[in-house]
From TrEMBL:
UniProt keyword terms in alphabetical order: ATP-binding, Nucleotide-binding
Protein name as catalogued: ATP-binding cassette domain-containing protein
Gene Ontology molecular function: ATP binding
Pfam hit, one: ABC_tran
Residue span, ABC transporter domain: 37-273
Organism: Shinella curvata
InterPro entries: AAA+_ATPase, ABC_osmolyte_uptake_ATP-bind, ABC_transporter-like_ATP-bd, ABC_transporter-like_CS, P-loop_NTPase
Superkingdom of source: Bacteria
Family, as annotated: Belongs to the ABC transporter superfamily.
Length: 344
C-alpha cells in the first residue's frame, strides 16, 4: 500500500501525549491527584468530569485523522485542546516537534493565523461582510492589502463552487452555502493544519456528500494535515486515513477503517462498525498474494474491494495487483468476491 496520504511513514506533524481535560469547580485539584488516582471514579468522587482522559496519539504530516464517538465522548473537547481553544489540564502537544502548550499568547495567535484553519458546525460568518469579504478576512488580518486578499479569496470561492455569489451577504445564503464560505475562509491562509468539528452535520445528505467530495479533492491537490470530528462513521470512513474512537473521554482504538472493522479492540468498537460492509474497507493489498510480476495494468493495491467490484465482475481467475507502475501481487477473484458477500 502506498504511504502517501496515510500519514504512515510520514514525519509526525502532531504528537499528543497524555492529554487530560478535566472540568469541574476545582479542576486544579486534578493535578494534585497522584497518577494512579486519576481514574474516572476518583474524579467523579471529587466532583470532576474527565472530558478527555489520557489521550496519546501521533498524526502524520498529510494524514486525514478522524475523531469519532458517541455524543459526550469528548471529541470536541479533544479537538479544542489541540488548537488550545481549550487549555488541556495535563499532557503535551507538539506540532512538528514544537511544544504548543508553551507558546505565549502572541505566538499562539500567530500559529493559529498562519498555520491553522478551523471550521465549526456553526458557520460563524461575519454578517456584515459579503462572501468575498468573509473569505478575505483572515488575509486582511494578516496585513495583506485588500485587493490582493480579495483576489486570493475569489480563487477559493471558485474552488468551493460559490462563483457568482461573492457579493451576497451570509443571510442571503443557504446553510450549505454558508458552510462552503466557512471552508473557503479556513483555507485562505493555506494552513498546514486543518481542524474541522462536525463541519457537515447540519447539512442535508446531498450537500454533505458534495462537501465531503470537495474535502477529498482539496486534499489531493494541496496535502495538509487534517483532524476532524464526526459522529458519522460513514463520513469518517470516506474521508479519514485513520480513525480514533472515543468512549467516555478515552480513546479506545486508533486504526485505519479496515483495522477497525477487521480487528475491533473492544465490543464497543465492534458494535460501532458492525454495519460497515467489509468490502468497503478491506483493501486489495490485504488479501492479495504477494508475488511480483511483469503486468503493468490490473487492480490498484490501495483500492478497496468495493472500488474494484466492476473489474471483479468482468474478471476470470486472478487479477494482477499494481502499486505505482509495478505488479506486486495477484488478487484471487473468489477471495475478493467472498469479502463482498461476507460479514466479518
Ligand atoms: N465547559 C464544560 N464544562 C463542564 N463539562 C463540560 C464542558 N464541556 C464539555 N463538558 C463535558 O465533557 C464531556 C465531553 O464533551 P464534548 O463536547 O467534548 O463531547 P462530544 O463527543 O464532542 O459530544 P457531541 O458529539 O455531543 O458534540 C461531556 O460529558 C460534556 O458534558
Amino acid at each position: 500500500m502506498s504511504d502517501i496520504g496515510t500519514g504512515r511513514g510520514a514525519p509526525t506533524a502532531i504528537d499528543a501525549k497524555g492529554i487530560w481535560k478535566v472540568f469541574g469547580r476545582d479542576a486544579g485539584a486534578f493535578n494534585r491527584l497522584p497518577l494512579q488516582a486519576r481514574t474516572p471514579e476518583t474524579l467523579m468522587a471529587v466532583g470532576l468530569v474527565g472530558a478527555v482522559q489520557d489521550a496519546t496519539f501521533q498524526i502524520g504530516r498529510g494524514e486525514v485523522f478522524a475523531i469519532m464517538g458517541l455524543s459526550g465522548s469528548g471529541k470536541s473537547t479533544l479537538l479544542r485542546c489541540l488548537t488550545r481553544l481549550i487549555e488541556p489540564t495535563a499532557g503535551e502537544i507538539a506540532f512538528n516537534g514544537r511544544d504548543i502548550l508553551k507558546l505565549g499568547d502572541k505566538e499562539l495567535v500567530d500559529l493559529r493565523r498562519q498555520r491553522m484553519g478551523m471550521v465549526f458546525q456553526h458557520f460563524a460568518l461575519l454578517p456584515n461582510r459579503t462572501v468575498v469579504g468573509n473569505v478575505a478576512f483572515p488575509l486582511e488580518v494578516q496585513g495583506m492589502p485588500r485587493v490582493e486578499a480579495e483576489r486570493r479569496a475569489m480563487e477559493l470561492i471558485e474552488t468551493v463552487g460559490l462563483k457568482g455569489r461573492e457579493t451576497r451577504f451570509p443571510a442571503q445564503l443557504s446553510g450549505g452555502q454558508q458552510q462552503r464560505v466557512g471552508i473557503a475562509r479556513s483555507l485562505t491562509t493555506n494552513p498546514e493544519f486543518w481542524f474541522l468539528d462536525e463541519p457537515f452535520s447540519a447539512l442535508d445528505p446531498l450537500i454533505r456528500a458534495d462537501l465531503q467530495a470537495e474535502v477529498l479533492r482539496l486534499q489531493q491537490t494541496q496535502t495538509r494535515t487534517v483532524i476532524f470530528v464526526t459522529h458519522d462513521l460513514d463520513e469518517a470512513i470516506r474521508l479519514a486515513d485513520r480513525i480514533a474512537i472515543m468512549e467516555a473521554g478515552r480513546i479506545i482504538q486508533i486504526g485505519t477503517p479496515e483495522e477497525l472493522v477487521t480487528q475491533p479492540a473492544t465490543d464497543y468498537v465492534r458494535r460501532f462498525v458492525a454495519k460497515v460492509p467489509p468490502a468497503r474497507v478491506v483493501r486489495v493489498a490485504s488479501i492479495m498474494t504477494v508475488e511480483p510480476g511483469p503486468a503493468t495494468a490490473g487492480v490498484n493495491a490501495d483500492a478497496t474491494i468495493a472500488d474494484i467490484a466492476p473489474q471483479l465482475v468482468a474478471a476470470e481467475g486472478r487479477l494482477p495487483v499494481i502499486d505505482g507502475a509495478r505488479q506486486v501481487g495477484w488478487l484471487d477473484r473468489s477471495a475478493a468476491l467472498a469479502t463482498l458477500a461476507v460479514r466479518i
